[in-house]
Design goal:
5 helices; mainly alpha
Length: about 190
Amino acid sequence: MTPTATDQTWLQTMGTTGIVAAVAAILVVVLTAYFTASAARRKSRAERYATMVVNLAAWTEFPYRVRRRPSDEAAITCRLTEHMHALQEHVVLDSAELAAECPWLAKRYERALADIKAATLPHTKEAWATPGIGTVGGMNLNGWGPVGTSEIVLRWRTELRWRFGWRRLANPVRLAWQWNWLRVATKRVVAPTE
């Protein structure tokens, strides 16, 4: 008894070529979905990191905002204080988000933020102590302000390169080398002298 077309299974009907074509089509759909989702995550992460850089830069600019306030009216000082509180909320959120996603980058972000705050705090205190600027000519501060804060932001921004592309694969080696170098350097400093 020979099988007829109705007696054949679907595998026999499709044949090897049909099965390979079906598997290839499914593979293309799955890979397309994966790479699309990966690109969307990468874009979202890049946008979020850009916002973090903006928040660090805003901390560097805060003493200038305070010093250049037009007057000491309650509405103006209240607005500056609200800006500072909102900025603090943003950097706390940034730090928590980074700690959950990438602990080594979170440590560097917190270090950069601490360095920026240390550099800007004396100038912020001085800016609050000076009266508001009433004229446009007073906007030129003639070199007043914290020095080196933009370099701190730039240093953290360069760390972001290690979260994307080929550097992401090489980063564990870099971090291990830095950790080992720091450990050796610390031993040299701590080692007792006789």
